[in-house]
Amino acid sequence: MQQAFAGIDLSPIIPLWLLAALGVVAVLALAPAFWRRARGAPLRALVFALILLALANPRLVEETRETRPDIALVVVDRSDSARIGTRAAQVEAARTVLEDRLGRLPELEVRTVEVPEGGNQGTRLFGAMEQALAEIPRARLAGVIALTDGQVHDVPGASPIEAPFHALLPGRPGETDRRLRVIEAPGFGIVGRSVELRVAVDDLGVPNATGAARLTVRRDGAPPRIESVPVGREHRIEIPIERGGPTVVELAAEARPGEVSELNNRAVVTVTGVRDRLRVLLVSGEPHAGERTWRRLLKADPGVDLVHFTILRPPEKDDLTPLNELALIAFPVRELFQVKLREFDLVVFDRFANRGILPPAYLRNIADYVRGGGALLMSVGPEFAGPVSLAATPLGAVLPARPAAGGQSGAAEGAFRPMVTTLGARHPVTEGLTGANPDDQREATWGRWYRSIRADQRGGTAVMEAAGGAPLLVLDRVGEGRVALLLSDHIWLWSRGHDGGGPQAELLRRAAHWLMREPELEEEDLTARIEAGRLQVQRRSVETVPPPEVTVTAPDGSTRRAPLQPGPGGRATAELAADQPGVWQVSDGRRSAFVAAVSANPLEVADLRADPGRLAPILAATGGAARWLGAAAEPALPELRRVAPGRDAQGGGWIGLRRNGDHTVTGIAAMPLLPPWLALPLVLGVAVLAWRREGR
Known about the structure:
- This protein is α/β, with parallel strands linked by helices.
- The chain is 20% helix and 34% strand.
- A hairpin with a 5-residue loop joins β29 and β30.
């Protein structure tokens, strides 16, 4: 809009300092006349004044201005906490009414910016506001009106603007909220022991909150247990770690009457179970070229405590050697196989023959140890097919294969390359081994062996085979325990690099860790994890049938079914959105997996009350106000007023936006008020009058 403004301006003909000096000279010259009260002193003063005024060159200046409208910035909070309950609807309704009212104010432009969900950084309201202000001249900014719940996590130390900043909050003052706070939770725990969680239940907005709250603790979907937690004080919870891998613990505090939301009443903690020092008992029997293979493998693992005994001479051999020279220490049969047997995580027999060293009662103890959850690995040679075979003892009841009967018994001599079976290509112990035969069953590229033991498989899974499809490595589950049977004593050839060598260390490591139930090597397993808001499900199985659908249970109890897509190595996967915080459960009908989806924004849910406390420093610095929209469907917006700079920007029932009056000058017209042609006659005329006055 075009407007005209007029005013008087001085454009001195001489420098200002010289004009000031002439003024001083004029005062000095007039002083004696006024002292003597001369009759023409006033006229003399008028002459000097006209001369100085002519030199100052006064002008009448007229400007044509184009005024520019002020800009009001509306900031709308779209974070998670601003969408709780009816807040989103209130904020949207208030935005519509506010933009309409602002649009009706004269000489005011309205701009709106939305604050997106900030993830783990919380609500970045002032960051979004600064981006919008970068395009607004500060001389035109009338003010900022923020529609927010007050949970802002980037409030600056000093106000970034000079215009008023106002906050309109959904709801009413005095809201309360109960939250469950995890003070400390270990990320790892030792299997067989317990870890301690430190938590607290806080009642926000309740002065001097006391009493107790019921806390529900659920571990891996097991039946929950209830504990009483004092409000506002730390509470400790013992969680037993019973297996390796992740243990998901879900904590839920009972709701408080009238609280804003139960979203932060729940917390999920994941503790990864790890084994302490693994204790392994290795008993070597008849000496052979690969005797130290197992010892080197187990000693190379810093997490293994190895107890190793080698039987160098059978007891029936008698050469009158003194007993104190037969061994460095006596073989502690009773202590190892009766008293402390269950303290070992794995028992390994390497070409051990039944020569009376272990009585049947102790061998039965080993079989019971396996059924009760122990692990047994046997690497056998020709002794397995003879009369001293352990298969003919009580230990044979837990072995997945027995020596072949009839004319097929004994050792098969001759070169062959071990092959991974069809099931072995899907089993984690042998899947993907370097040099293994590919899927088209062509011959493997690793080194050859020269002896295998003929055996009849009666259980378990043969993951490797010798010449003619004979079982070579058989894995089996017996009761709660596991057994691995290697029907050859030539694996040591791979460690020597014979005929190109092979992955001896990797194969034996996988077999040992599978026996000790490492979660990564489970052949029948269902796992789930959440990354970037996506639930990723993986089912692993040695079965060749199509994988079943899985049932996914969300934290709110809703269920849905998802098909699995087959992949290599016996894996089948599925992926779907995980849009709720809490514990997700996945089941294929036989196994279940649990995974924790933590809140995407823990800062945002730490306090769910609508509260202007965080914004108080900015409100005070800019003279703005915080107003509540009320609980009704129609928001109670305050009156909007325009105020001059320096005036109060808020009062009872109203908020103000600054009127800046910013403009652009489009034209200037100047007219001298005392041009030379007028100044000279005036000066001469007044001088003549002064002369005549004094001459009388």
